[in-house]
């Protein structure tokens, strides 16, 4: 398990060509991606529907890299076991969703998966404080979740990333800080400077003419 200071590049499959899924997964691996980010949307927690556990299970046999599953769902607890069975390596749920957060995180950990908690741009850092010693990843959304290709919300979210980093250091914790939404060659540096180390990008990576070069440039 990499430490929370190592930069991790995680292309979001949301922006891939789903008619060529296996090739797109291979392309991301060949390009040097560390994780593959899978954006699950239920059409209720967010105003969009993407895919479910069967999509994750379809990808699993073709992916050697970590499957980083982001559940943008009102009831992640109801479907957790199906995403675990589908082969997720780590599962991130939202603090704003309608579930017993501590219980869902404990079930994720008990299954041996990486355990993440996400918060939307409008949600204050204080909301996740009670759970920071229960997770190994905090996902600070840098757009309002639901669609790829949106603009990076710098002013609303970077102070929160810095707050998460400072809290981690002052409390001897070690969770990754992941950002997701509007991450490109410009904003990746801003997010990194504030303390994020896991960079989710859909458009800027799967949409790049040369994905390997785009991944490389996100590492500097
Ligand atoms: C939430 C999704 C998107 C996606 C990344 O809406 O989680 O943020 O992963 O989209 P891009 O990188 O295209 O902004
Ligand atoms: Zn995501």
Name the ligand types: D-xylitol-5-phosphate, zinc ion
Assembly state here?
Answer: single chain
Cα shape? globular
Number of domains: 1
Strand and helix layout:
Elements: E1 8-11, H1 21-30, E2 35-41, H2 53-59, E3 66-72, H3 76-86, E4 90-94, H4 101-110, E5 114-119, E6 137-141, H5 154-170, E7 176-180, H6 187-194, E8 198-201, H7 203-206, H8 211-219
Parallel strand pairs: 1-8, 2-3, 3-4, 4-5, 5-6, 6-7, 7-8
The site of D-xylitol-5-phosphate has 20 residues, from strand 8 and helix 7.
What's the short story on this structure?
The protein is an alpha/beta fold. Helix content is 35%, strand content 20%. It contains eight helices and eight strands; from the N terminus they run E-H-E-H-E-H-E-H-E-E-H-E-H-E-H-H.
């Amino acid at each position: 398990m990499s430490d929370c200071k190592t930069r991790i590049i995680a292309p979001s499959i949301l922006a891939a060509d789903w008619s060529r899924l296996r090739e797109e997964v291979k392309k991301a691996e060949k390009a040097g991606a560390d994780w593959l980010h899978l954006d699950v949307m239920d059409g209720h927690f967010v105003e969009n529907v993407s895919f479910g556990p069967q999509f994750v299970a379809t990808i699993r046999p073709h992916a050697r890299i970590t499957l980083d599953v982001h559940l943008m769902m009102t009831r992640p607890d109801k479907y957790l076991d199906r995403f675990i069975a589908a082969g997720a390596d780590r599962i991130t749920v939202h603090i704003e969703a309608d579930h017993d957060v501590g219980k869902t995180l404990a079930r994720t950990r008990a299954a041996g998966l990486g355990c993440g908690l996400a918060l939307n741009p409008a949600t204050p850092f204080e909301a996740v404080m009670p759970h920071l010693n229960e997770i190994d990843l905090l996902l600070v959304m840098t757009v309002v979740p639901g669609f790829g290709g949106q603009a990076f919300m710098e002013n609303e979210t970077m102070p929160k990333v810095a707050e998460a980093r400072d809290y981690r250091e002052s409390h001897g914790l070690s969770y990754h800080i992941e950002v997701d939404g509007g991450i490109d060659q410009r904003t990746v540096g801003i997010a990194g400077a504030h303390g994020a180390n896991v960079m989710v990008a859909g458009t800027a990576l799967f949409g790049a003419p040369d994905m390997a070069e785009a991944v490389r440039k996100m590492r500097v």
